[in-house]
Structures are given as structure tokens and as C-alpha cells.
């Protein structure tokens, strides 16, 4: 299939490679010429604009940092909507707010294009391995149409409901993640201060009611889980600033629908305090440093 | 084995029955005569006091509401320490603060008795089925000695470390539990307000990074999990007031060791608000009612 | 002086009247024809657009609900910048975010107009009485130029610094106000629950270190201060939804400059919970209802 | 009048001196011999125990760190109740929980002694100057009886109601104080980050609705108020650990009467974080350091 692909960053580039590997023909665009060049060497065709990337596409995919970039790439003079053929679906895998998704979908609809939100989870590792989870919002018909394309990049393609619900699923999941991680950090640090062996404590949590991904897979206490960022100085993983962005989307969405989020708003401030103190690029599980008295040795 | 058992409430009574079923000889005491009578009918011997229950015991077990009760039962004129033989171990399965445990253990030690803290998880269901988890604090030697007795009441007997660490494990686990449940409530209610199907949202969380016991086993949103209290009007389960007690133990213990617990302290206030508004006896997952606009239909 | 005035709502209308009373010539515009008509009856000239209102003005004043309105009124085809003469100052008394102010000021600057942010405090009472406080951001020169005009509407005209600092002053003041009011509510409700007479408690606070405007002038406990909204069922005053808007501006601004606001973020959620439960139009001091067990009698 | 005085610490010693200055005869006791000696040199009589200090007293005053000390001094074998004559009033100026006050009052009542709670505000400065505020709980009759004695130590003697309400007044005031101080810290630090001059911002708050003691008298931002601890490196003043103690009393009392204290619980954690990081002895207004990016220069 001929696919237009816009946004070749840490996530977009490996996703585009997996499309190439699956035999698709790609026209790619990115503001970085070197990012485009790397994909061209892998077999893609360079496009001079989002418009050009979309001109002959049977499906267009975008993977961008924020809603403002999606808007520009979509509606600019050289944008996707200026080049795309009627009836072609646009899949946006960026993580952005549901309200923007609905506005973009309305614009696309006006000229006969379906716009699906399809944010992912699984990180750069999942993007490279082609095992991402796609949370897709849009009509069933459009979802069925793009599913084969997404399957080349992900292992789990979930239809969440109407336009915007893909973003809602991602935002709500990450709201819970941000809270549970800080909660586990609190519990582990309290246990340490009260004198229990952190591995014993984690072992009990993980077979009891405190069990969660933040405890059994990604425990923030150094040394409890060898493969977790906490055991390598909080390098790699999912950065504090990215968690902060997602909690910002969650609390903004909550504000819009007038929904209280007590713990989410407080968790956001905790990650903010970490970021302000210079830990923005560290994995978000480093939030445990707000609680531990002396982490010099870790 | 001859066992003294003090405290025949919702948890203690079924635990004592399992000891009888395992062939132990029980001398039981409770302030409620009818509670004692029910156990006598099951084959136990009635004792007139904790002292009397302990007089010939090879092991003494207590299961009481709070530290003040343990203190009174242990150190009163008619208490366990007044009747127990030298060298006999005392196992306290109450959930109390670690500092009290240490004080009680020191008293017991003075007259040659080991005192182990062994709080449980698993609720009244686990108590009846004999599948409780025991989190045990005390010396390895004492732990090995009482393990066979505890095995008649539980499926998972874990040695957590020195005296008090059993309580630490329970308190820290329940701190995380209290936070994750309110966090999941927040995420599910936000998702509802943003228009996603709650079952779809829970399905995504449960296969993603938001996964936790509060979401995949005990989801607070009505109808998502048939067997959860949320699907039967929040009846049964683990009461809000009990969660409130455990979060009180956690924040008190944190205060004692000068450890901040930002989310735990806020979660405690959320359950407090629920209890103040009359939901103290409902399952603690009813905390989601703080977030949902219209739960009349549930 | 010839003044263009755009925005004749609850605040703008009485402000415009005071300008008329001071002898100024007003060209007024509002989307509501009846609002314009009322001012015309008071002596103003009706304008068909912001552009028309600005055409001959020596100073233009705007008083609008949010940044989006200011943008539209300023930059629309029929907007102020399309009609205003070079060198004429524009004073925006709306409460909006500092970042928008800077963007608007840059646009105005491009065509030789000063743009000053001048949000007010004092409410509709102060607007009617002409006793508002104006917090003004902009150059000293521009401030000195518009000060005489503002003095017809306010009793206290404060120069806060460069462009945007007027909004910063208002936002930070109202952040503190939102926190102190909820804090006083918490203290008063706790005192009630602990059995002290609320008037006695308020008396002590007001002569001690808990003293604040929220306690000594606007106490949220009914009956403590006769003139406060709490003593008339929380009607009138400063609505919960307006406080919510201002806390939203504060937490958004904090997010932009990466500044944690722990208590502010939590206070925002408390007012959100009130608003969600139907108290959005009540005075914001009604937040005490989150704390009091039985306010049926009040 | 003959007065027994127990507890000659930073507060008790200057209070006792003011009683001597007013012509009273004092029998004093403290666990520190040097503290007793210093008072003896000022004209007091040394007593070997609280019992001895109370033996001939017409009024007994205690000023101790916590409820446990009051209990011991009151009910020990060598305690006040063992030595005091029937009908003599006991005034406890310690800051302790209202529930303990009621228990102590009941014990005193049993042997015909009134027990009044009379915690103070005003700090060591007010103690030395004799200008303390006394918040007194107890019967009107007992209050009238001890008022002349307290007047020698304080400038403002307030009857708060029945036994315990003196503590309630102090606890609720300090709950509000702890919240407003952290709130002002948040607002001032946000203003700094947004580029307004801190003195200008404080000036606006202090004449507007954000006005409070924490802003206009004790502003936490260095340099805004010359006489405040913030302007001398947060030395002197009211220590973070003392604020932490008082917020602990407030949240404990709230727990006992099942009253939510959302902001108070969070504020407690903020001061806890400060104390954990080594600022326990600094003035509590140093909580602003949690918010400011770079306070090296202050």
C-alpha cells in the first residue's frame, strides 16, 4: 500500500521502518532532513512537505510531539489536507488532547477523509520491535480499514470507540500510571524507613492487593527489578517530562469536562517538582527520590 | 498442639475453626460470650480470661481490633503474660502499629516469650477458606516454630524480617492499595466523563501500564467486574472505615520516622470524606462516588 | 477624552458608566445589543464593532471573559487593531494568562500601539463604586498616560512592572486567596466538629497568626460575619466557577514556567468538586460545605 | 499569690520570670537543674518534684513539650495531683491534644481541682515581653479565678469555652497558619518565576484579598519584610518541626472526630519534606524553599 508518513522522531522512525519491512511504499516527511535521509536509505521516498507525502497515499500516518504540530501538518498550506485524495484515512498516533482530535476529525470529514486517533503504548522498544499497542478512536468501518496497516507496527490494535476515545484511553491509563508509580514510591520508601527489606516488601505487594505494573514490572526502588530503569540510575525508560506532559493532558481534559482529579493533580505536582529539580530526562520512576532520605549510594 | 486463642470476631472466629479442623486443642477467650459459645460448640474449650486461655498453651494467638486491645489482653492482671509458660510463642495477627509491636515484644521477651507480629491479608473469605496470607515479623527460629500452626489458617506464610516487619509489610501494601484504588477510581470516572466505555477502558488498563489489582480484580466501576463489590452496590468487601484505619496506621508510622507520604495523606482524606458522608461501612472502592456525577443508577 | 470601550458585562458596564460620569466621551461595543443600549441611555455612543469603537479613540479599554475573546476583539477583521490610530494605548482589564498578554502586546506594538494588561480586583461592587484596584503591566510611560483614565474607575492604580505583570499579580493573589479560603474553611469546620463556638474561633484567628482576608472579612462560616456571602446562603459575591477559572490560570501559568503549586492544584480540585456538585454559581466560600457534616440549617 | 510552676524551658522560664516580677511567690520544678537554678537566682524557690511545687500552691501552672509529659507530671507518684490542695486550679499552657485535656481534667475534677487548658501564642518573644495570648478552656468561674495570674504573663486572655476549647482554638489557628504560609510561599514563588518583583507582589496581596499574616507580617520571601525570619536566613522564629507538631495535633484531632482536612494533611507533608531534608530547626516560612529554583543566593 502507498502510505504517507509524517514525523520521524524516536517513535516515528522505527514505526516507519516496520511499514517498509512489511512491504509498503512510503513517502515520508520530517522537519529534520537527516531523519528523512535515514528512512530514504531504508527504502522510503522523500517528500518535500506533508502535502507531497499525502498526494498519492492510500493511508496517511502522523506521529508528532503535540497538538500544535498536528494542526500545522494537517491544515497548513503545504499540509496533508491540501494534498490528500478524497476517502483516504488519516491516522494520528501522536498523544494529544481529545478535544483537538475532534476538531481535526471535523476538518478532515468536511473534505471526505476519515481521521482516526491512534496513540500508542510500548515506548521506543515496542516501536522498534513492532509490538506497540494502538488505542484507536473512530468509526468501526475506518478502524477495520486501517487495522492491517497498524498491525505492521503493533501487536495489539484496540478499537476504543468513537473519535477521540483512543486518546481518552491513553490519557486515563497514564493518569492511573502516574498515580500508582508515585504511590508505590511512597510505599517502598516508607517500608525502607521502617526497616523492611525492599525486595521482601515488593515480593509481598506483588502477590497481594498492592500489586501493580509500577510494582511488579517497573519497581522504582533500585535493585528490586534488574531490568527496570531504577536499577540503572533511572536512565532510559519513560522520562519524567513525558509523564508530566501526559498528566497535563489528563488534568486539562478533566478541567474541560469539569471532573475532579485530586490525586492526579497532586501527582502532577510531584513530577513537576522532580523536573524543576533537574530530573526531567530521568525515568519517571525516579519520583521515589522525593521520598528517600539518602539516595547518594543508589 | 494446645493453643490459646483470644479474639473471636469476624476474622478470629473462622481462623480458630480452621485450627480446630486441623486437630489442635483450643482454649478460647472473647469479651462476647456468644462468640465463645459458638466456638465451644465447634469443639473448643472456653476460657474465663486471656490468662486462663494461655495457661497450658504451647502457642497463643491473638486477633484484635487495635493496639489498645492487644495491650490490655497481653499485660492486664488477667492477661496472657500473667498466665503463659516460659518459652511459649505469642502470635498477634491484629493489624497494629509497628512501634506497639516492638514494645509488646520487649515485654514478652523479658519473661522469655517470643512475640511475633503476623497480620493477615485475604479478608473474611480467606479466613474461612484457610487461605490467608500471613506477614510475619520475628526471629527466624520463632517463625519456623509457629509456621506449622499458621499454615492451618493460611496458604501463604511469609517471613518479613525482624519484629514489626510483618506490620510494616501490611501497612505499606495497604498504603499502596488505598492510593491505587482511588487512582483507578479517578481514571475510570474521568474516562466515563470523556465518553469511553468503562469496560473498554478497564480492558486497556489491564493489559497496559495502569494495570493493578484495583483495576483488574476489584475495579471500582459498577459492572466492569461481576464479582467485585462495585457490581453489588459496594456491599461486602473491605469497608471504607477499615481502609481508613490502615491509612491512619501508615501515616502515623510515617510521622514517627519523619517520612513524607503526599499521596497517602491525601487518599486518607478522600476516604475520610466518604466515611463522613455515611459510606464507612461500604466497600472502600465506593470512593469512586466522590468522582462520579450521577451514581443514582448504580 | 474620547474612549473606545469593548465589553459591557457585569464588570464592564459599571466601569463604563464611571467613565461617562467623569466626563469622557465613550464609543461602546458589546455583542449584546441591550447592553449597548443601556450605556447609550447613559450617554455613550453605540459602535457597530470594536473597530468602529476604536476609530477616533484616544484610549481603548476592553473587559472580556477570556483570552479567546480578547484575541478576537483585537485581531478580527472588525477588530480594534484594524481601526485604532497609531500611538493610542489599549488597556485590557480582562483576567487572562500572561503569555497571551505578551502575544497581544507584540501585535499592538507592531503597529505602534501600547497594550497594557490591567486586571482588577474589587468585584461588581467596586466596579459600581469606582473603587476598583487596577494591577497594571506595561512601560512606565504608557502607565502614566492611562492612569488618569483608570482613576475614574478605581481607587488604587498600581504599576506592577512590564507587560504581563498585572496579570501575574492578579493570578498570584487569587491563587493565595483560593488556598486561604479553603484553609479557613478547613479550620472553621474542624473547630465546629471539636466543639468550639465559631465566632469565638474566628475572633481568635483574626487577632492571631491565622488572620487573613478569608477569615476576618469574608469568613466562610455562616453567621460569623453578617456582611459576608456565607451569612446569606452564599449568594452574591465571587462565584466558585470564577475562582475555578482563576486557579486554572494560575496552575496553567505554573505549568508553563515549570513551577510546582501543590496546594493550589489541590485547592483547584476542591472548588472543582463543589462546581461539579452544582455550586458553581454560589460564592466560592461555600467550599466549606465540603467539610461540614450538616449544613442543611444554613 | 503562691504559685507552683512546672516546666522551665524556652517558653516556661520567661513566663515564670514575669510571675516573679508581678510579685508572686513561685515554687518551680524542671528536670533540668540548671533551669531551676536560673529561676532561683531570679527569686523563685526550688522544688524537688511537681508534687513539692504544688504542695502549698494557690495555683499551679505547667508548660511542657507534649501530652506524655503533662500526664507524667500530673499523675506520677511525685506528681501534682499527689501534692495539690483541694480546690486549687491547675493551668496547663502546653500545646497538646484536646482529648488528653479532657482526660486530665476528669482526673483533676475527681479530687476537686479545676484543670484549665491555656495554650499560648506569641512565641518566646511574647513570653519574655509578657504579651502572650492565652486561649483558655474551662468553666467561666475557673477562668475568672486564674485570669489575674495569666495577665501577668500575657496581654490577651481569651475564654474559648469549656475544657479543651483552648487547645481547639490554638490547633485550628495553627492549621490555618500552616496552610496560609505554604500558600503564600506558593504564590510568591510563582510570581518570582513569572517575573514580577516580589516586593510589588507582596504589596498588592497585602492590600487585596490574598492578605494574611503570612504575607503582611511574616512574608516567606527574603527581603520583603526586614523583620521576618526570611530576611535573616530563616533563623529564629517558629521552627518547621514545631509547625509539624501542631499540624500533627490538628490532623490527629480531625481523625478522631472524623473530619476531612485536605489542605492541612498536604501542608503537613510539605513541612515534613522540609524537615526530612534538614530544615526542621529553620523557621517554618522556609517552606518556600520547596518552590524556589535557586535559593543559594538568599
Automatic annotation (TrEMBL), chains A, B, C, D:
Keyword field contains Lipid metabolism: no
GO terms for MF: 3-hydroxyisobutyrate dehydrogenase activity
Domain 6-phosphogluconate dehydrogenase NADP-binding intervals: 2-161
E.C. number(s) listed in UniProt: 1.1.1.31
Cited Pfam families: NAD_binding_11 (PF14833), NAD_binding_2 (PF03446)
Domain 3-hydroxyisobutyrate dehydrogenase-like NAD-binding: 164-291
The keyword NAD belongs to this UniProt entry's keyword annotation: yes
Catalytic activities: 3-hydroxy-2-methylpropanoate + NAD(+) = 2-methyl-3-oxopropanoate + NADH + H(+)
Keyword annotations: Branched-chain amino acid catabolism, NAD, Oxidoreductase
Pathway recorded for this protein: Amino-acid degradation; L-valine degradation
UniProt similarity note: Belongs to the HIBADH-related family.
UniProt-listed NCBIfam families: HIBADH
Full protein name: 3-hydroxyisobutyrate dehydrogenase
Gene giving rise to this polypeptide: mmsB
